[in-house]
Write a structure and sequence with these properties.
Blueprint: E1 2-7, H1 12-23, E2 30-35, H2 40-46, E3 52-57, E4 60-63, H3 73-82
Length: 84
């Protein structure tokens, strides 16, 4: 299972979500971090939305529900389980 996190440098919301994702041990997934400042298409798509979580489904990406910045690691794990 692959999860993509669209973020940018110095975004405290992005950093917080990444830290929580890295703490999840109850769901087997591969995390890919994409810096939106490295590609114009990512920047245009997500500049006002980050952090954005997506799941990779074949060749497609599907956005996941936006988690609250206050979500716990356990709640985030449940969100991932519910969407895979």
């Amino acid at each position: 299972m692959q999860v993509i996190l669209y973020s940018k440098p110095d975004c405290h919301l992005c950093e917080g979500l990444q830290e929580k994702l890295e703490q999840i041990t109850t769901v087997d997934f591969e995390l890919e971090i994409r810096d939106i400042t490295t590609r114009e298409d990512w920047f245009q798509a997500y500049q006002y939305e980050i952090p954005v979580l997506c799941r990779q489904v074949g060749e497609r990406e599907e956005p996941l529900p936006r988690p609250s910045p206050r979500i716990s690691v356990q709640q985030l794990a449940k969100l991932l389980k519910a969407n895979f």
